[in-house]
Amino acid sequence: MPHSVTLIPGDGTGPEITEATRRVLEATGVQFEWDVCQAGAETLAKQGTVLPEEVIDSIRRTKVALKGPITTPVGRGQRSANVTLRKRLDLYANLRPARTYQGLRSRYDHIDLVIVRENTEDLYAGIEFQRGSPELEELIELIDRTTGHRLDSEAAISIKYISVAASRRIVKFAFDYARANKRRKVTAVHKANIMRLSDGLFLSIAHEVAREYPDIQYEDRIVDNMCMQLVQKPEQYDVLVLPNLYGDIISDLSAGLIGGLGVAPGANIGSQYAVFEPVHGSAPKYAGQNKVNPMAMMFSGVMLLRHLEEREAATRLELALMQVLAEGKNVTYDLKPRPDDPTAVGTSQVANAVIERL
Ligand code: NAD
Question: The CATH number of 106-121+162-258 is which of 3.40.1130, 1.10.150, 3.40.50, 3.30.70?
């Protein structure tokens, strides 16, 4: 039976890398029935929205999507399609593996980290109070009355919101992932020494959940120290679980540790649906040029295959990608010593090289 998967090419360079990824996935021999759904700049022009309802309906039906990047329109009153998708489908876990492969130009050799970022709350919940608004005045009054702190009314406030339920489910997700993927350790990352109540809550829930997984090592780190440790001795870390903002920052730091966005895959996972996509954005300046690296999306395709329990095909595709990287010949400009290297190949040539090695 073919796997029914929603395929969202996205915009900018999205359609090119999506096509390259679709080709390598099909070349593994796994059967797919793609439900291709448009989202992004084109649907904004035609339908007035970057995320048509059909996309959500399709994922509700197929349960799983492979997605190219989507540009966030600036200043047109449109919310990011990416954030909306995560919210509408309650994709609460953002999973971003960061692994060094032979052939990548990185300062490090043996990095194998998995970042598990909470995707729904924290400072990203979008609860903000505008400077000069009556709501801000009301909040300032409340804070004065309840804490004795009188805030300056010439200010803006964003709420950092951390709940027991969301903390518990993300930490459980990290431990379940560690157990299922034979990882040895989970590190909870926080700033509970300063934000004693919000990050303190996250940390106390992490301690509580960790006791349910005696087979997996557990520790915690303060986020600033974590940054330094990741730069100095990244090999000591394994699975990291973090609230939304720290997760965002640390996952980009980790992409930098392994040699850049061109090879950093990701997934957004909820209890019912999963959306696989590269970490990078739509790189619009290169759209239509057959130039950008499709490997981050192809590695996201490896994650998709594992999610569909096509483990053998996933391993085969991962090995083919590793081989192309190690050979260093059929790779795009971003993996060359200089971006104007004339031996760099295009997006579709990378796909051909991967298919030949499958
Ligand atoms: P970007 O990731 O598109 O680009 C950052 C830099 O990396 C650029 O120099 C770009 O050319 C390069 N780059 C990115 N992907 C590459 C690839 N596959 N191969 C080679 N080089 C690559 O980030 P940005 O410029 O900040 O964002 C562009 C748009 O994408 C914005 O509208 C942003 O909101 C959106 N975005 C979407 C997603 C998503 O769909 N999940 C994620 C991040 C950003």
Answer: 3.40.50
